[in-house]
Design brief:
Blueprint (H helix, E strand, L loop, with lengths): L5 H18 L13 H8 L8 H14 L3 E6 L4 E5 L7 H14 L3
Antiparallel strand pairs: 1-2
Length: about 110
Amino acid sequence: MIMPNRQHLLVCLLLLGSVLSACATIPKDAFKLSPTSLEDRQLQSRKFDTLDQKLLLAAGAGVLQDLGYNIDESNTYLGVLTASKQADAKDARQIVALVALGLLTGAM
């Protein structure tokens, strides 16, 4: 049995890498913004009349809690707020919607 040396192994790895990278090409318009992206950003952006960061963070936490999210972490010094929400399907339509979404996105 012939044992490959390091050069043969390196050449094989490089060839394998080039074959695999050739399959993963990025479309030309992948980073192109949609015509409505500026409009969408303006609708989603808000300006407030206060500079009190603690007040803004508390208001953001309140909105998330009103929407059913649990606040996981809050750091007023960094201005970071993390929250999570667990989906709770209660009727058949919600269960079907969650299963369909999982099948379409590949996430379970």
